[in-house]
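Field: sequence (string)
Field: structure_tokens (string)

Example rows 1 and 2, in order.
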Amino acid sequence: MDDRNIEQQLDSLEGWQRTHTCAALGPNNLDQEVCLMGWVQYRRDHGGLIFIDLRDRHGLTQVVFSPEVAPKAHEHAHILRTEFVLAIKGVVRHRPEDMVNSKLATGAIEVYVTEFKLLNTSKTPPFPIEDRIEVSENLRLKYRFLDLRRKALADNLILRNRIAQSVRRYLDDLNFLEIETPVLTKSTPEGARDFLVPSRVNPGQFYALPQSPQLFKQLLMCGGLDRYYQIVKCFRDEDLRADRQPEFTQIDIEMSFVDESQVITMAEGMMARVMHDALGHELALPLPRMTYAQAMDKYGVDKPDVRFDLHLQEVTDIVRGSQFKLFATAALVKALPVPGGAELSRKEIDDFTDFVKIYGAQGLAWIKIKEDGWQSPIAKFLSDEERAGLAGALHLQPGDIVFFQAGAPDMVNSALGNLRLKLAERFDLIPEKEFASLWITDFPLLEWDPEAKRHVAKHHPFTAPQDLEILTTNPSQAVARAYDLVINGTEVGGGSIRIHNASVQQQMFDALGIGEDEATAKFGFLLEALAFGAPPHGGIAFGLDRLVMLLSASKSIRDVIAFPKTQKAACLMTEAPSSVDTGQLRELGLRLREKPKE
């Protein structure tokens, strides 16, 4: 085949049919005639023989061009390069014993080519199509169609498919209905900013992309469709990080005539099925439960990683009379003892001090427990009685270090709770390939927003309270009928029993500072539905992207989404978002505001 005429001689697949994938062949296929198709991963010319590693999404097979077996095919094989698309026909043979690759599924065999077709050529890729590559994420995102050819990324998407199919089978067995809900809907206040879509046929009016199908799934319950689910796209215009995207996927579930225990039992059964089908992991049921108050007290966060035993402990009463003024006057003082942690250097402690400032802390107090005494800038302010109290309560031993945080409870818990995770990484306390799952229950119904100077919903405004009277008389103490599933310190699912009575829903809106007129304007359709005999109902939603990230041990949510956005919400491959011409804007009744001159 003439190199100059490669483009003119690219062959079609007429008369060819793939018989096996590039991971399917083994000793059982010896002497069979096969047809494989894929991409050239590597080409090695050993003079007499030319070896090609042929790749598809399933794996690799080594194919051999031999002048003795197929002189014409061998003669033309010199044109083949990395990422050329190829179809080959050949015969399966044993590899020589000293060439067997035990790490490869097809490593005991090779295919001697009798004929091949070049299906397409390729430019030189901007990076090698290999798993262990040192290349910027932005470059990989720009050429995502090439990045998807890497085994690690393809395996993540294969796992994602396996999880989604497992969910569907499980819920279908339980008589759930998969029902789609609208993508163009009404803008309602649900926490994050909405993505807005201008309406051409209704000038000056806008749709919103759904942050979740929350209202629609409740309306389905009102419609008598008592078991609903969908695997659905959701949209939130919020600041991004490793586990967030502007568009993400939820496993969304709702059930009628249930209480918390029934939803939890259904959900953990689904998770057990998923982990079995996806990883072969057996999840012991029922899962343990922990209240929100217990989680905050012991771990400082409402999604605790319980795979290791570093715990926070309140010591407010022990140091209330301390000469260290911060301890003496703080609303809350908590300690985080680290056995054997006295080996930390001063630089490491300083780095941890900078870290807790992210969570509002002004600093980080610490004490190293040495054989010859306590080493710390604050040790001199502690009396013998206070030292004895701390040593007894925290079970301190020589070689330990203990960190303290004092101040407002939210800051103290957040700073030490996140420091706990940092310390676990530093001391290698987190066991790999282990899953620790639990439910967090009894969340606060409301939380105070100091900027808005009002209560806001901890989950969403449709969550039922455990005690309606407390919601009315003391809303800050109201407890929600809500529950989150946490695995390895990651919240993978959350839900609640919903309010199913219109008057109770209005009481909830009153507690949130949403009057009747505003409630009717924003949620009138829901209030109307609740007034027509809505059944008791509740549900849960799982973040599919986050779940796949956890089960695949990926570091970023972008590694488990086929075409993700960057942290600036941009798609580098398609260059979205992008400008549109003035004609399109004019059709929508829109005009861009000019940038102010500098």
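Row 2 begins here:
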Amino acid sequence: MANKVPSDIEIARAAKAQPIEKIAAKLGIPEPSLFRYGPTKAKLSFDYINQLKSKPDGKLILVTAITPTPAGEGKTTTTVGLGDGLNRIGKKTVICLREPSVGPCFGVKGGAAGGGYAQVIPMEDINLHFTGDFHAIGAANNLLAALIDNHIYWGNELQIDTRRITWRRVLDMNDRALRSITSSLGGVANGYPREDGFDITVASEVMAIFCLATDLTDLTRRLGNIIVGYTRDRKPIHARDLKAEGPMTVLLRDALMPNLVQTLEGNPAFIHGGPFANIAHGCNSVIATRTGLKLGDYVVTEAGFGADLGAEKFFDIKCRKAGLKPAVAVIVATIRALKMHGGVAKEDLNKENVEALKKGIANLARHVENVKSFGVPPLVAINRFVADTDAELNALRQACAELGTEAIECTHWSHGGAGTEALAKKVVEIAEGGSAAFKTLYPDEMPLWDKLRTIAQSLYGAQGIIADKKIRDQFAEFQKAGYGNYPICVAKTQYSFSTDPNLKGAPSNHVVPVREIRLSAGAEFLVAVCGEIMTMPGLPKVPAANSIFVNPDGQVEGLF
């Protein structure tokens, strides 16, 4: 009988974690600069971070992926594996990841701490409450919501139109029952009843602000700029009008310090912030990334979902706002996922099918060309599975060569950093070669409507964008109001270049419908909601929560 392959949580539990002080010492961080959360987690003090400003930056490496499928791609696993691989070849490397949301952990997606022998630990803590950052973000968001309703209750001096309140409450859990609610029921003492609703915490503008803020002062400024609603004559009401930015910053003060943990191989990783990529901008915090660049030769970070969402927002929002210049973009692909894009059913993915693979490579090809359009050299990482055949691998390598890039096999899931050494060496070769000439997709001064159309046509292969007159008028109003220099954050399905999640491969000449446009004045971007997209997910018929429990030894079981 073949040996049972241990689960991710079993591998993580079997690892002997080093004290967090030893991980910090690898980066030259002194112990007094750590705020410990137990023996294997710590936050890094702002006093120490501020001392790093004069240090030169290391090289920034982005890990992105093809359009995700149920077959799996392994982007986070590859990010961790590449970080371990770079450290193995002598490059002092820091990994920067997003914090997982509890909702997906108990829903369908599972955790986001890597997998196999390419994980960050402590896996259970990271996938659950971790250091409490998401609770702080939720509390800050909901404090603002409470201040709005309290202001209305005590006379509404600002003349807020209760029909035009745009600020919603949040919860870090998938709960469709809370998408649309009526609040303040129960009589005069409970306020004025109105329509309200909840988003998941990672969709909150506070999360986006948290991840884009450069320090506490910038955080306070951005929080004050949040628009919570409008008066009857359409005058915007800001959080600062409610004197909310101060207490919100107090709730977020400790959370804003980046979290330091380690990989299974004892390499440093910052895990901080976590906006969804199909709803928000999908990148870890600017503070964590900038700190990593000061401390390491290399920083390996990821952006959510496929390159059309994650990489585009990383480049056009995070890099634009933070002045970052990535040196290489690694695009993660699997033979299985490419065959699914080529029309193969999930149950047939273990059978060799070179023709379907070649058809599915169209999806990878578009992502490669998209990355090139930002002036960043792409490199393909093949996350290899046991069922992948030599014929399929050769076909993929040949196709990548024709695209002007290289495809490198990686076995980090089973071999850790040793399985990514070849990828790490190629990353260093490209990064040290200095061929990157990073540029954003569009200039700040381009009109908002044209920015969205440029994204849709240039990256999604769309014919154009459409919207009702009401939405087009909103674009014009935001342009006129002085927000025209903001970037666009597209909220759409992650499963297709189009807004139809069932349209695989590389569809062209489709039309992207714009259902809603939202101003995030604190985060300093506009969210264009395209197609059917939920800011509060629901649980599936059989949620992952059904299999998660604490065993008799007090250990968590069932996380993945």
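free_text_note (row 2): The first strand starts at residue 34 and ends at 36.
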